[in-house]
Write a structure and sequence with these properties.
The protein is mostly beta strands. Helices cover about 5% and strands about 50% of the residues. The longest helix is centred in the middle third of the chain and has 8 residues, at about 95-100.
Length: about 180
């Protein structure tokens, strides 16, 4: 070790244990296995639901598919995998009805599955991977089917902008072989 080696900047230590990675450690560039495919974390999002309640979402890309992994760890780890859908497939008038009633219907059917309104939450969204501290206001309506195996979420951004995702609830063991980014 030379004299100037002492002044070299060390790379920061990771905030996770590389020998015991979990979905709570995910970050941009991480690789994981899910549903017999390897996925790369392309983007990281954070939701602030108030009262120090945060959830994280990861855009995962397998090369031929893109899904969103939502991680809610409020004492009990809840994971969902979703894909965006065209909101008008739920009901061609759903946006107008939601604006008029100030909420979407309490029951929805999509691809033969009946969903029931579970929660509605107002919060803020941040694209962490963009590196900005811009938080966008949103309202989420979360639906589950009878068995709480399938999830559908409608999100309102601003006055008239809506989107929807549909997917399923998964268990932590379904995510494996997590590898940190280089």
């Amino acid at each position: 070790m030379g004299l100037f080696d002492f002044f070299k900047k060390k790379s920061p230590e990771p905030s996770y244990d590389v020998t015991n990675l979990s979905v709570k450690d995910l970050n941009k560039g991480f690789i994981l296995d899910y549903d017999m495919k390897s996925w790369e974390v392309k983007e990281v999002y954070r939701y602030d639901w108030g009262n120090n309640n945060f959830t994280d979402e990861y855009k995962l890309d397998s090369g031929d598919d893109v899904v969103y992994l939502h991680v809610d760890d409020d004492g009990e780890l809840e994971l969902t995998i979703t894909r965006p859908i065209k909101i008008r497939k739920l009901d061609e008038d759903i946006i107008d009805k939601t604006i008029e009633m100030e909420h979407p219907p309490k029951k929805l059917t999509y691809e033969g599955i009946k969903y029931y309104l579970h929660t509605d939450c107002a919060g803020y969204f941040n694209d962490v991977s963009a590196g900005k501290d811009d938080w966008e206001e949103l309202i989420d309506w979360e639906y589950y089917d009878d068995e709480e195996e399938n999830i559908l979420t409608i999100t309102q951004w601003g006055e008239r902008e809506f989107d929807a995702v549909v997917g399923k609830v998964i268990k932590e063991f379904e995510i494996s072989n997590i590898i940190p980014a280089n």
